[in-house]
Amino acid sequence: MITDQLASLVFPNEDPIGKSLRVGQISFTVVGVFRERVGTFGLSEIQRYTVLVPFSLMLYYTGDDAVEILYAQADGPEDVVLVTSQVGELLRSRHSRTATYVVQNLSAILDAARRIGTALTVVLLVIGFIALMVSGIGIMNIMLVTVTERTREIGIRKAIGARRQEILFQFLIEALLMSGIGSLMGVLIALAIPVMVRPLLPGNLRVPVPWLSVVVAFVVACSTGLFFGYLPADKAARLQPTESLRYE
Predict the structure, then answer these.
(1) H or E element that contains 38
(2) Are residues 29 and 45 both part of a single domain?
(3) One-letter-per-residue 3-state SS of 104-138
């Protein structure tokens, strides 16, 4: 049996079942194609181009009857503990007391992964909040400087009939554009990282891209720009034309 990725590479656009595949000096007949269904946190030895052969055939060619790892799958999460116990009893009944083996399940690994994931989520949320506050304050300071430098322009616009809402809207749009461009650059960099690290990952490990989180992050970042840009925009909208025109 060969993986679906190996089948696509060796037998493109054709059915590999019944075809011959040479491994070294030995010719094998393909009897099936499989795909690993579940992630195993890097514990699985199944890689992209794995070939599975019958145990009897391996014993015939290598003379080694030792099996390093056996995998068993329970019907559901609630059966994992029971199946682990049954596998242990089966091994004890078939091997001597001096045999060395370990029966493990993924429950402990899953629990540890959840705890690590929760801790990382909290840390990343704190870092993200601090980054948002720093960037928001930066946008506000830049907009305040912009309002000061464009005081005469604001006075001229008001003198020829521009309303307060128009000035407010103009500077809010500028704050939104500033935060939006920065957010877009951050999203593009974040999406590029999984693509760059993918060739470095072992086996079938992939870095998922949560598109909902990407959209939420972009919206929150833009909203932060609007929030911190409101104070400079309101300051610009409240400027009096006479005072603005006298500003040097």
Answers:
(1) none
(2) yes
(3) CCCHHHHHHHHHHHHHHHHHHHHHHHHHHHHHHHH
